[in-house]
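User: Hey, my collaborator sent me this sequence without any context and asked if I could get a structure. I don't really work with proteins. Can you help?
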Amino acid sequence: MNHGMVAFIIFHMRNTLRTLPVLFALALAIAAPVIFSGYSSLARASNAPGQLEAAQLYQSAAWRIPWRADLYEVAGHQYYLAREYSLANPVYQKAFRHHALSAEGWVEWGHVNYQLGDPERAAEIWGQGLEQKNPSDRLYFFLAQIFKEKRDYAKAAEYLQRYVFIHAQDATAHYRFGLLLTLTDPEAAAIELITASQLDPEFDPAAQTLRTALNLASLADAPSARFVIIGRGLALVREWELALAAFEEAVRGDEKNAEAWAWLGETYQQAAGKESPEERRNTAKLYLDRALDLNPISTVVRGLRGLYFQRVGNEREALAEFQSASALEPNNPALYVSVGESYARLGDLIRALEAYQYAAALVPDDANYWHLLAQFCAQNNINLDDIGIPAAQQAVVITNEAPEALDMLGWLLLLDARYPEAEQTLLRALELDPQNAGAHFHLGLLYWQTNDPSSARDHLVLARDLGNTDAETFLNQYFP
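Assistant: No problem. I've predicted the 3D structure and written it out in structure-token form, which is a compact way to encode the shape of the chain:
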């Protein structure tokens, strides 16, 4: 390189160095207002009047302060809280592109897509979130739910097992894990259900029901029969999707199992699905017809067909099915209750009453059927003195003054205008259970009818607050 060229380069370098401060000052002068505006938006965001306004301010701040890409996630969180999921999604995407998503950000971004009706994308995001360093363990829980909805129960159980391993004290997780295992590993399912009930006694009734079903299923010889028993247990605790899977397995195991087809028809009406209600009813009818063809003398088949016809409003067909079932199993009181209910819906209260009486007579030591007989008399305001009140009294004796039985007796005494006895009985029910909404409601009606509106309102308000919708209706009408 000659001396002239060297001199030329040095000259231009010195010239450039002289202009750098000027260029920097110019760039700073242009950028400073934008950056200051970003910090202003950030300051105002914390005091924004609502989540939507806060989200917009955080998003504005993130755009104006390049080194605070984490604010995109904060904006997404505010949009999420405001339920503006379509606005939240692109903001989370920006946080992702800037490598600024936290562990919880991955969780919420998946939720946003789930709420937008795209569970596949939600699962993809949550799966990607698990690949990050120190991911949120909640991802296991939500992925388990996604795969359960997709009816991939093995995959759902796999993710939930990982979650349970971390959250050993989470009763709900143990219960849900146990539910999933009923289809594949009954022994492990029983252990999880026991754990759930030990951690939270509220799960005990459902856990006991399922464990009984699992124990009975273990005694069955054929796989199809085992799945029918497990499915019935799941149906009893209203886990309809899992029950449907169990009955489908039962049908696959034995296509001539009439009860499996009948239960499949019943469960198909209950489980959620993409089909319209009419399509599901039609499919259920096909399954129930198949069950009848396979075994027309099955009490289960006849009873479930009766429920189907009752559900679609065909009371005469429902009555015929329940009568057939009761003829096949004449000592089953539940079937006579169904017969009585059908007669009542057809307006034949005399035959309905006879059916309820017969059911109670079959099991005179069972308070439930005396209670149902008393309830029938109360609801239809018939035979109060000679049948309804004695039935309610019998239930009170058998249950040793259970609050529900006392409430029923008090209601019947009220309907029969035996106000002092009704008041004494209802007060006794509330003495045993102050949270008995029915007793508060009936006592409120009693005080209304005996011209004590202040006391009536007090008890009706308590009944309403405890969840009694009849009390709410009464208050709206008479105490606006």
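In plain terms: Residues 4-17, 22-36 have pLDDT under 50 and may be disordered. You can pass these tokens on to your collaborator as they are.
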